[in-house]
Amino acid sequence: MRIATIGTSSISATFAQAIGDVDGVEHTVALSRDVSRGEDFTQRTAEATGNRARVVTDLDDLAGAGDVDAVYVASPNALHHAQARTLLAAGKHVLVEKSATSRRDQFADLLEVAHRSDVVLMEAMRSVHDPGFARIRELLPGLGALRRAEFRLCQYSSRYDRFLAGETPAIFDPGLSAGALMDIGTYCAHPAAALWGEPARIHAEATILRSGADGAGTVLCGYDSPAGFAASLHYSKITSSATPSGIEGEQATLEIDSITTPRRLVLRGTNGSTETIVVDGAGGGSGAPQNMRYELAEFARLATAPAGQRDDDALRAHQQASLDTLAVLDRTRQIIGVRFPDDPWAAQESRTAGGV
Prior knowledge:
Blueprint: E1 2-6, H1 10-21, E2 26-31, H2 35-49, E3 54-56, H3 59-63, E4 70-73, H4 77-89, E5 93-97, H5 104-117, E6 121-124, H6 131-139, E7 146-154, H7 158-164, H8 180-196, E8 201-208, E9 214-223, E10 229-236, E11 245-249, E12 252-256, E13 264-269, E14 274-278, H9 292-303, H10 312-336
Parallel strand pairs: 1-2, 1-4, 2-3, 4-5, 5-6, 7-10
Antiparallel strand pairs: 7-11, 8-9, 9-10, 11-12, 12-13, 13-14
Helix pairs in contact: 1-2, 1-9, 4-5, 5-10, 8-10
Protein name: Gfo/Idh/MocA family oxidoreductase
Keywords: NAD
GO molecular function: nucleotide binding
């Protein structure tokens, strides 16, 4: 599979490493608005990918490129929908970085275009394609009736220092559909959606920054099935926490060391038993290869399947999880009052904290 990339940020560079880790995937084109930045990116990533991709600066040129089968979209969130739509309509498979789009209705629109073009559209949510997440799925039945889950990702961002100094980095700019919820809160919301679907009820609180973006928040998701089950999602880019995630059942609790890269799972029975499960996989420690290889391998498996042999059930499950996640993000933003350009819902009461 010949893949192009959009974006030259650190996440794109990490994805380039994943290209080198997955057999049968070749990096052929890089799109960058700035030629020199694009050339620098392809030079830096050539060793990891195994070849140096050519640089283009125009999306239409990329859409019409004969040496591109698929595109990884890692531009700012606000650009995902328009860029992916152009590429899907041109017959390119698209792997779009999280959050897939600014809103659920935009992703639903992309699914219609992908269906008409008979191409694969998938969100790049590395955690749910990780072998650790597969192990979590396997262990769930042993927990008994599920009652509570807590998924956490709180990582202090160095860009918050710049924000406090008076700048507005892109990650804290709601005009780019950014903020902590869209950047790392989705890492908590997506696994919950993949496991249990869209919740019936949502409650949320957040720290709103002077830019109008959120810096941290907590989302409580209530489910009718399993009956009486609730999942709390805790995320932050302005504080840090080493508290693990977990899923609690009536027979046992599953402690998860990292919701993005599950490598150490501890099963604690209500009878006092303890079992530690170590998951073998990439991305498990400092300096280890990132686990983006798993999402890319799954995307390539689906995109390169012979006609009539694509695993449509798996693809639909991935896409439904993205739809359900975006439904949670949409509703959360409505509750906490974070607005993006062209949001269709009415403006919420401003909760901007003037001193932050």
